[in-house]
Structure formats: C-alpha cells, structure tokens
Amino acid sequence: MTTVLGSKVILAENVTMVTEFLLLGFSSLGEIQPALFVVFLFLYLAILSGNVTIISVIHLDKSLHTPMYFFLGILSTSETFYTFVILPKMLVNLLSVARIIYFTCCALQMFFFLGFAITNCLLLGLMGYDRYAAICHPLHYPILMSWQVCGKLAAACAIGGFLASLTVVNLVFSLPFCSANKVNHYFCDISPVIRLACTNTDVNEFLIFICGVLVLVVPFLFICVSYLCILRTILKIPSAEGRRKAFSTCASHLTVVIVHYGCASFIYLRPTANYVSNKDRLVTVTYTIVTPLLNPVVYSLRNKDVQLAIRKVLGKKGSLILN
C-alpha cells in the first residue's frame, strides 16, 4: 500500500503543468498565410475605420442623439475592443513561427473576448427592446427609454457580460493542464482550450453550456418576442409607406442579429467533443471579423439617418478645411 501511495506521489510530482500555449492558428495553410495576413489586415482596418466612423458621427451629429443610436454607438465601441483582443495577435502569428501565448495571457484574452462578445449579445437584445418600445408604445417611449434608463441598461449589459465571462473563464482555467499545450485555433477560445485539460471536464462543460444558453438563447428569444409584437403593430398601420418606414428601422438590427446569434450558437451551444477545427474556425472568422465589419456597413448603407449624418459631418469638415 505504501509503495502504491509512493508511486502516486511521484507521478503527481512529475506532472508538468502548462505555463504557455501554442496557437496553431492557420499554420496548416503554409504559404497562404502571407496572403491571409494581407486580407485580414485589410478587414481589420475596415472594421476600425467603420466603427470609429459610426461612433464619431453619432457623437458629432445631434440628430442621432437618440436611444437607438446611443446603443449603436456603444455596440460599435464594444466591437472595436472585441476585435482588438483577437486580431492583432492573429496577424502577428500569421507572420511568426513562434505562436506562443502565456497561460495568464490566454486566460485574459478569453476573459476580454467573451466579456465584449456577451456584452454585444445583451446589447443586441436591448436594441430589440428599444425598437419594440418605439414602435409598439410610441407615446410612452420617452419615459420607457429615458437617458437615465438607457445608461443603466447599457451599464447592466457590460457588467452582466463581464461577470458571465469571469464565470466561464474560471470554469475553464480552474482545470489542470498537464502536458498538451497546442491550441488548434487562432486565439484562446473555450472549446480548443478546454480539450487540453488533463481531467474529466463534463461538469465544467455542462455549466459553460448553461451560461451559453443564458447569454445566447434568452436574449435571442427576447428579440423574437419583441419582433413578433413589432410585426403585429406594423400590420395594423393602414398605409404601405408607414409600414415600410416602421420596418426599415428594424431591418439593419435584424440582419446583424441573425449573423451574430447564428454563428455564436453554432459554436457555443454544443458539446466540446463535437468541435471540428477547420469548419469551426471558418465560422469563428465570421463572428470575429465579418460581424464587426457587418455592423457599420449595414447601419451605414441601409440607414438614411446615418448616411445623412455622415454627409453633414464630412461637409462641415470640408468647409473647415477650405476656410
């Protein structure tokens, strides 16, 4: 018995705990990586310029100082930081042989990525409620969505997002990581990291799944109920022009919601064992790069108020330069 116990102690003492991870990213693509670097760099600059434009225009144009554009500005700010957590490191790794990320840095990357991602989910749900209040209860809208209420709701989204993120990150990094350290992804995401743990992860994965349901399914159902009420109200509007105008204010939001929730649900609302690196990596590219780019593009191309505000801001800057 003593020998058995002794051998267990020796085995425990000889276990090497992981202090750093290797991000495999797109290393399997070999010579294509420099081309990917150019493409992703262009997309990253487009995301930054698009979101900064939206934030600046909303700040400068007083006609956009409404709850809907207040939330859009916060969403654009969150998505700017959201991409900043992932893309610079990914771009460096595309041109680097050493794709190492330290254990603590990996945990921090996951914390901030999930924090901003969950905040975005909650903000999209909040924007759905804003459209519901504006269309279904126009007379009570100034009270329902006063600036004080908007500020509290936005703060609740951010606090809730980062508390949920802290919970998930704690569930992942409280597990022991012994020898395997190759993360088959371009950043520290939940599934590729938790698969490296050298213990049974079923309980932790189940709790993470519950968190995923709370931050993805619940807000999405809330948005669906809001839009059912909106649709019922719009159908009661007598004129076709009135119906078109009412629905046009929702079209941009719906487009972003479908892409964001669709991709995020595909990745996070299933067991880690079902993770398929290549296909999942493509879907992840969609919600880490395409969705943040889609937000400013959709809202600037489909929204006449934003288009007009951009022209006004550019016109003012042009006149100042001439003067």
TrEMBL record:
<feature type="transmembrane region" description="Helical">
    <location>
        <begin position="206"/>
        <end position="230"/>
    </location>
</feature>
<keyword id="KW-0552">Olfaction</keyword>
<keyword id="KW-1003">Cell membrane</keyword>
<comment type="similarity">
    <text>Belongs to the G-protein coupled receptor 1 family.</text>
</comment>
<feature type="transmembrane region" description="Helical">
    <location>
        <begin position="69"/>
        <end position="88"/>
    </location>
</feature>
<feature type="transmembrane region" description="Helical">
    <location>
        <begin position="281"/>
        <end position="301"/>
    </location>
</feature>
<keyword id="KW-0716">Sensory transduction</keyword>
<keyword id="KW-1133">Transmembrane helix</keyword>
<feature type="transmembrane region" description="Helical">
    <location>
        <begin position="149"/>
        <end position="173"/>
    </location>
</feature>
<dbReference type="InterPro" id="IPR000725">
    <property type="entry name" value="Olfact_rcpt"/>
</dbReference>
<keyword id="KW-0297">G-protein coupled receptor</keyword>
<feature type="transmembrane region" description="Helical">
    <location>
        <begin position="251"/>
        <end position="269"/>
    </location>
</feature>
<dbReference type="GO" id="GO:0005886">
    <property type="term" value="C:plasma membrane"/>
</dbReference>
<feature type="domain" description="G-protein coupled receptors family 1 profile">
    <location>
        <begin position="50"/>
        <end position="299"/>
    </location>
</feature>
<dbReference type="Pfam" id="PF13853">
    <property type="entry name" value="7tm_4"/>
</dbReference>
<feature type="transmembrane region" description="Helical">
    <location>
        <begin position="100"/>
        <end position="129"/>
    </location>
</feature>
<dbReference type="GO" id="GO:0004930">
    <property type="term" value="F:G protein-coupled receptor activity"/>
</dbReference>
<feature type="transmembrane region" description="Helical">
    <location>
        <begin position="35"/>
        <end position="57"/>
    </location>
</feature>
<keyword id="KW-0807">Transducer</keyword>
<dbReference type="InterPro" id="IPR017452">
    <property type="entry name" value="GPCR_Rhodpsn_7TM"/>
</dbReference>
<dbReference type="InterPro" id="IPR000276">
    <property type="entry name" value="GPCR_Rhodpsn"/>
</dbReference>
<protein>
    <recommendedName>
        <fullName>Olfactory receptor</fullName>
    </recommendedName>
</protein>
<keyword id="KW-0675">Receptor</keyword>
<dbReference type="GO" id="GO:0004984">
    <property type="term" value="F:olfactory receptor activity"/>
</dbReference>
<keyword id="KW-0472">Membrane</keyword>
<keyword id="KW-0812">Transmembrane</keyword>
